[in-house]
Amino acid sequence: MHRYKILIADDHAMVRDGVKNLVRQSKEYVVIGEASNGRQAIEQFETLAPDLLILDISMPELNGMEVAREVLNKNPLANIIILSMYDDEEYVSRCLEIGVKGYVVKNESGSELEYAIRSVLQGKNYFSRQAQDVIFKKYSHAVTKKKQREELIRLTPREVEIIRLIAEGLTSQQMADKLFISPRTVETHRANLMKKVGVKNAIELVKKVQQLELI
Question: 4-aspartylphosphate modification sites (predicted)?
């Protein structure tokens, strides 16, 4: 019977023991190593080649995110679950960006870690309920901000066309020919757009519109 090899990295022996006891409840898994600091975690990962690394964020020498980044740079397909006491947006978002497959907050039930281990070893991602709440709140906040920007600055279809042509580097005459309007009308649109968006020139206009994701 194939057994998945698991490496545990946490600077607290009690936490490592708790994770080991949880993992040993299943015959599918075997703990092949433990690390108490970040540097040791990287060395053991390279030596033992585990199927899964369960990794704490706060550790001596190198923190969990530094370890995850270094491991994933060398092994892009590595399976890493972050087991952390932190559930704020900064930590969860940074771990997502690094490419970890799972994130579980330490004050959650052991079943969350069980689900995470099973899911990640099946090739899926798993973020526990508290981590999902953080991700959802961030996404919801971003959507709300985007809607507020769109309500504050509404562009007409013609204005969108003008901005895109400005971004392509066309002159007012070239835009006029392409849109079958007069150069004076193009200039009027350009002036109105700069006033609406709150910029002083065409370069700033294109940049600001892109930043605000208005087109």
Answer: 56
